[in-house]
Amino acid sequence: MSVDDDLLITSAANPRLKALSGLRRRRDREESRTTLVEGYEELALALAAGVVPTELYVCPELFSPAGRAGSQDIGEQDELLARLRTLRVPVVRLSRSAFEKVAYREGADGLLGVVGAVGRPVHELPVGKKDLVLLAQGVEKPGNLGAMLRTADAAGVDAVVAADPLTDWGNPNVVRASKGTVFATPVGAGTTQETLDWLHANGIRLVVTTPETSTEHTDISYKGRVAVAVGSEKHGVDDALLAAADERIRIPMAGRVNSLNVSVAAAVVLYEAVRQRR
């Protein structure tokens, strides 16, 4: 299909674009089992992970240096578009005003894809012999979940589980904050009890971060199957997770504040685990 053959939408009031904007809402994502991926880097990483969009919306005008948010060459955007065409992904061209209506981030670069639902029930996650798992309980902010996914990908974490999640893995802001790594790392979700059952069934040791302990995060072993748990910014982990912990750890704090951002705390502990496991 050539560029001239693409469907062209110029009106921001087009019903198709209204449905597209609806995918910013969790209810619409769950009903349609789809979500949005915006941006060259995110789409390229999703494609590298085997995720092929069901539709692609493009605004070539935003491929220009003045319009794109990233630093990639315009030719790379064209190359990605050509690759998706070879995979027979339907392409819809949008005018600048129409694209900016459906774009959910500032500095849009003219690429927006629709992909299938992200994540799976926790009991469906695959388990290896020496898995390292990150467990995030009740984390409120999509940006924190996305940041933890970037760390998990960089550290080689085998899976990330959201227990009692307040948002879904397909939240476009999770996808954005993760830089697309939500497609590269296995992610699951479930209630805290479902998550604990899964850990127990697979012999995964549970290490819980909490200020209510004297054991520092460098004092324990992270060898074998282990899950590192962090909680919400406001409340931390709940009593059920604390009661189930095989180890309780804290990150030493030398200043006046008594806690770190949850994504930073996760990174500190995960990299200690990675250091020991090498």
Question: Secondary-structure blueprint of this entry?
Answer:
Layout: E1 7-9, H1 15-22, H2 26-32, E2 34-38, H3 40-48, E3 55-58, H4 74-86, E4 91-94, H5 96-102, E5 111-116, E6 120-121, E7 132-137, H6 142-155, E8 159-163, H7 172-177, E9 187-190, H8 192-201, E10 205-209, E11 226-230, H9 239-244, E12 247-249, H10 262-277
Parallel strand pairs: 1-4, 3-4, 6-9, 7-8, 7-11, 8-9, 10-11, 10-12
Antiparallel strand pairs: 2-5, 3-5
Number of strands: 12
Order of SSEs: EHHEHEHEHEEEHEHEHEEHEH
Detail the poorly predicted runs. Answer: 66-71
Tell me which oligomeric state these chains represent. Answer: single chain
Mean pLDDT across all residues, rounded?
Answer: 91
Helix share of residues?
25-40%
Spatial extent as radius of gyration? 21 Å
* Shape field: elongated
What would you say about this model in short?
With 278 residues, the protein is α/β, with parallel strands linked by helices.
Structure commentary:
Helices cover 35% and strands 19% of the residues. Mean pLDDT is 91; it is low at 66-71. The strands form 2 sheets. The protein has a 7-stranded parallel sheet with strand order 6-9-8-7-11-10-12, with helices on both faces. Strand 7 (132-137), helix 6 (142-155) and strand 8 form a beta-alpha-beta unit. It is of the alpha/beta class and 278 residues long.
Highlighted features:
278 residues; alpha/beta; seven-stranded parallel sheet; 10 helices; 12 strands; 35% helix
